Amino acid sequence: MFQKYCKQEGKFSLLKSFYFQEDELFGSIESTIIQDFTTESDLEAIKKNLNNAGLSLSKNSSHYLETKALSNEVKLINVQQKLESEVETLLRQRTISASNIGDFNNIPQKSGSESASLSISLNNQLTIRDGNNSGSYVFIGLTLLQTLAKMINLGMYSKASSLKSDFNIPESTFYWIKLRCLVRRKDFIELDKFCRLKKPPIGYVAFAEELISNNQFQEASRYISLCDNASKPNLYLKIGFMHEAAESALLSKNINALKRISTLTSDPTLKADIEARLSSI
């Protein structure tokens, strides 16, 4: 109860004294970190304290995971600082201020470059900080996966891939995040490249479903064609492609799907063809 009270009331000095008397190293380090993230505004001081905390915990092998987490947090803050600096530098180079960022799309860019992709998407994707830091862009304070998503939203694809490797982000997690971000920013060229890079660990159905949920039916049809035959009928039905749904249902001998298509279609020729096929199955 005492520890909870101190944390709620922000009495971190008192809490640290308590942990010191009780010889609780982990509790003392935890309270220091909480205090930093709630009261400290100097990032360098925060990083220094995190490094010191990690060094103290590393002396006890039972705290390996905590030590690794602290190390990764410092590493992430460094990456985020660099990202914010790069974005601000790009803006300065093009003499674009935060107040007239809407003009950014008028600047000629080399097609296909990461710089061009970043420039075009700055208008809607970046969040401007408030207060004394107005005009800079927020990465610091985001979680690892939020940082990854923001990088993809800004078109920083190669840097996002590097982040995945540097922090050992699971392949399936990376695919889900990149898929959702690419669909939302409607970068279908990059989505196609991403899908064809290798067989997606989350499957082709995930690509089709994500596009369908965002009402991108024509794009979805391209990925449905890559799905297994058993999945195709229902996916085609979701986007209203009745003929394709019927064809795939016939290939997979999905009688229930054929009956459903026959009920839903307004095409008398297709309906008659399905009924004829059903009678011969």
Automatic annotation (TrEMBL):
Q: Which GO terms describe its molecular function?
A: actin binding
Stretches assigned to the Vps16 C-terminal domain: 2-93, 138-263
Give a GO cellular-component term: endosome
Name its GO BP terms in alphabetical order.
endosomal transport; intracellular protein transport; vacuole fusion, non-autophagic
Q: Which residues cross the membrane?
A: none
PANTHER family for the chain: VACUOLAR PROTEIN SORTING VPS16 (PTHR12811), VACUOLAR PROTEIN SORTING-ASSOCIATED PROTEIN 16 HOMOLOG (PTHR12811:SF0)
Name of the featured protein: Putative vacuolar protein sorting-associated protein 16-like protein
Which species does the entry assign this protein to?
Answer: Smittium culicis
High-level lineage: Eukaryota, Fungi, Fungi incertae sedis, Zoopagomycota, Kickxellomycotina
